[in-house]
Design goal:
CATH class of chain B: Mainly Beta
CATH topology of chain B: OB fold (Dihydrolipoamide Acetyltransferase, E2P)
Oligomer: heterodimer
Radius of gyration of chain A: 26 Å
Number of strands of chain B: 8
Protein name (chain A): Acyl-CoA carboxylase subunit beta
Keywords (chain A): Coiled coil
Strand content of chain B: over 45%
Order of helices and strands of chain B: EEEEEEEE
CATH class of the largest domain in chain A: Alpha Beta
Structural class of chain A: alpha/beta
Largest sheet of chain A: 8 strands, mixed
Distance between the termini of chain B: 5 Å
Number of domains of chain A: 3
Number of strands of chain A: 16
Largest interface: A-B, 20 and 12 residues
Helix content of chain A: 25-40%
Radius of gyration of chain B: 11 Å
CATH architecture of the largest domain in chain A: Alpha-Beta Complex
Helix content of chain B: under 10%
GO molecular function, one term (chain A): methylcrotonoyl-CoA carboxylase activity
Structural class of chain B: mainly beta
CATH topology of the largest domain in chain A: 2-enoyl-CoA Hydratase, Chain A, domain 1
Number of helices of chain B: 0
Pfam family, one (chain A): Carboxyl_trans
Shape of chain A: elongated
Largest sheet of chain B: 4 strands, antiparallel
Distance between the termini of chain A: 64 Å
Number of domains of chain B: 1
InterPro entries (chain A): AcCoA_carboxyl_beta, ClpP/crotonase-like_dom_sf, COA_CT_C, COA_CT_N, MCCB/AccD1-like
CATH architecture of chain B: Beta Barrel
Number of helices of chain A: 21
Shape of chain B: globular
């Protein structure tokens, strides 16, 4: 063997091995995979081309400078990947780590392909801060690039371990964050720092664990039980998207919905009695085609991708079973982000409304329910993809607006015969209009009779055939026909084009 | 001790369990009326009802403890 080759082999072997044995043992203890094993699992045939492999190779203890950047294929689609190696200085960022991440972002932009961030990093290498933190091609540039790429190419984060301090913004700027339960965490200051700086004693799991972020903060979208499952989720997510914003979402072969009760059986006749919206969704979509976003966060609103006769669609549905399907601060944020995501990548939107309105009361007013609701309405209103609104049962007040009511240019507003559209429900309306009169009636029975009469009158006024007669809703159909009409309409609406008003961008409510 | 807290403000419409009663996860234990909707609350785990903290007709705020399980 010639000496040149020997040297190369030795260097490569050192790089491919990653950090020292004790760090590999630590991975095993916490059920984590080595970064290169994750990549093998992620890419088709386990093959990929790596860039900047020799970064910092003159330092023997910093293989690849703690990050693997690669191009490969997932289900036939070329993608770019950045993956931290937590066996090398806990996956921390040095000067070359940052440069490699910036370059793979630039590559993804040039190739116009999705970019995945496999995050498992302790954050900045403090000892290298001058070189990697503040400058033009310092860590800030990574986030700047993420913002620039947002809406151009899908950006997906799988969080396998920590993403600390500044590094926590990588997931924050991605379209989706998949977190591995128990191992993933996201925080600006560690528990140790929290104790020193503000005197708070708290565990990592409680403050920034995967479960917390997927249920409470909303920073996580999907909670995975294992690394394998997290990688499978990422692949499944990508299957709904084109490679970039210019491509239409990928379709698949049509499949029948799973066997179950009919919509007529699922929807209760009494408007005030809850039902499970998941059961209804299942009867509209191709079986096993649902990919839910933020399932555990603000569950009173359901958001997810699905296929109807093979065509990709983004579903926004009220869940009457949780909090009566009432909209809150968090559900508004959840909807706004999901709608923006669908609109950016040409995924048609399907709204399934059964909503009593936005929550009222001191608590939510102080939390800014109005400005949060405005985000939801603004995102929905700005979306130019095909929008189909279906009024399943009630759609009251601004709830009708948020769920793409007639004023917001849905391509079609379909009502089921159980639909009820109004400023507010009959009981609330009668109380509002006749409160003085009701108070005047002393006899309890008389009062009840009066209220009942007025409720009946009100119901007639907001009768769905009355609204269809006035062309408020475009169509009323039997629940049994809903899937078929959605399937046809999604197909017809694929050529929808809307020219945007002349301006730079709206002033987004936040 | 596991506490079931109100997820939203409203009025207690119906309490479906009594103290000392065995409940299983997913069982509806109380119904709150809010925004003119009847909103069922389920037990999160199996257990025994240790204390019912509210009565029918009471106003409850978000995060108030409704039922304590032993």
């Amino acid at each position: 063997m010639d000496i040149y080759n020997d040297k190369l082999l030795e260097k490569v072997e050192n790089i491919l091995t990653g950090g020292s044995k004790k760090y590999h043992d630590k991975l095993k203890e916490s059920n984590k995979l080595f970064v290169r094993d994750r990549l093998i699992m992620l890419f088709d045939n386990g093959t990929y081309e790596e860039d900047g492999r020799f970064a910092n190779c003159v330092e023997s203890d910093l293989p690849a400078d703690g990050v693997v950047c690669a191009v490969g294929k997932i289900d036939g689609q070329t993608v770019c990947v950045m993956a931290n190696d937590s066996t090398v200085k806990a996956g921390s960022w040095g000067k070359r780590t940052v440069e490699k991440i910036i370059r793979i972002q630039e590559t993804a932009e040039k190739l116009q392909v999705p970019l995945l961030y496999l995050v498992d990093s302790a954050g900045a290498r403090i000892t290298d801060q001058l070189e990697m933190f503040p400058g033009r091609r310092g860590a800030g540039r990574i986030f700047h690039n993420q913002v620039k790429l947002s809406g151009m190419i899908p950006q997906i984060c799988i969080l396998f371990g920590p993403s600390a301090a500044g590094g926590a913004y990588i997931p924050a700027f991605c379209d989706i964050v998949i977190m591995v339960d128990k191992n993933a965490s996201m925080y600006l200051g560690s528990p140790r720092m929290a104790e020193k700086v503000i005197g708070e004693k708290v565990s990592l799991e409680e403050m920034g664990g995967a479960k917390m972020h997927c249920t409470i903060s909303g920073c996580g979208d999907v909670l995975a039980q294992t690394e394998q499952q997290a990688i499978a989720f990422a692949k499944s997510y990508l299957s709904y998207f084109g490679a970039n914003f210019k491509q239409l979402p990928k379709g698949k072969e049509s499949r029948l919905p799973i066997k179950g009760r009919t919509l007529e059986e699922i929807i209760p006749k009494n408007q005030n009695v809850p039902f499970d919206m998941y059961e209804l969704i299942d009867q509209l979509i191709d079986q096993e085609s649902f990919f839910e976003m933020k399932k555990l966060f603000a569950p009173e609103l359901i958001t997810g991708f699905a296929r109807i006769s093979g065509q990709t669609v983004g579903i926004v549905a009220n869940q009457p079973k949780v909090k009566g399907g009432v909209l809150f601060v968090d559900s508004s944020d959840k909807a706004a982000k999901f709608i923006q995501l669908c609109d950016a990548y040409s995924i048609p939107l399907l709204f399934l409304a059964d909503v009593p309105g936005f929550m009222i009361g001191t608590k939510v007013e102080r939390a800014g329910i109005i400005r949060h609701g405005a985000k939801f309405i603004s995102a929905m209103s700005s979306a130019t993809v095909p929008k189909i609104s279906v009024i399943i049962r009630k759609a009251y007040g601004a709830g009708l607006y948020a769920m793409c009511g007639p004023a917001f240019e849905p391509d079609i507003c379909i009502a089921l015969p159980t639909a009820q559209i109004a400023v507010m429900g009959p009981e609330a309306a009668v109380n509002a209009v006749y409160s003085n009169k009701i108070a005047e009636i002393k006899d309890v029975k008389e009062r009840a009779k009066f209220i009942q009469e007025k409720i009946e009158e009100y119901k007639e006024e907001i009768d769905i055939y009355q609204l269809a007669s006035e062309l408020v809703v475009d169509e009323i159909i039997a629940p049994s026909e809903l899937r078929a009409t959605l399937s046809n309409r999604l197909h017809y609406y694929t050529t929808k084009q809307i020219s945007l008003p002349s301006r730079k961008h709206p002033v987004y409510p936040v | 001790m596991v506490e079931l807290r109100a997820q939203m403000a409203g009025t207690v419409f119906e309490v479906l369990v009594k103290e000392g009663q065995q409940v299983s996860a997913g069982q509806t234990v109380i119904i709150i009326e809010s925004m003119k909707m009847e909103i069922p609350f389920e037990a999160e785990t199996d257990g025994v009802v240790a204390k019912v903290n509210v009565s029918e007709g009471d106003f409850v705020n978000e995060d108030d403890v409704l039922i304590t399980f032993g």
